[in-house]
Design a protein that fits this description.
Layout (H helix, E strand, L loop, with lengths): L1 H31 L4 H11 L2 H8 L7 H5 L5 H6 L11
Helix pairs in contact: 1-2, 1-3, 2-3
Length: 91
Amino acid sequence: MIVLAEVIGSESLYLLYAWLLSAAIAGYLSDRKGYGERIGLASGLILFVLGPVIWLLWPARPDSKWKSAGPFGSRIRSERRRSPGSGHPEP
């Protein structure tokens, strides 16, 4: 068993982590852009490094979280869009 671990090496473990991280990032980006998380996970798993890059370049839907709150869900940006009469002070 130890011989098999030496043959595989730690590089394959790092590649596995990178592959899974690529899928997670692509899933997050596709969900924020309004297309759902599943399609992003699938593209991230199949296209490895290209999945997140494609979702960064893909246009967001008009009613998506990406358009309304930004890529990371900034509360400051969403509060600025509220009307002055909503009871929240303007920064």
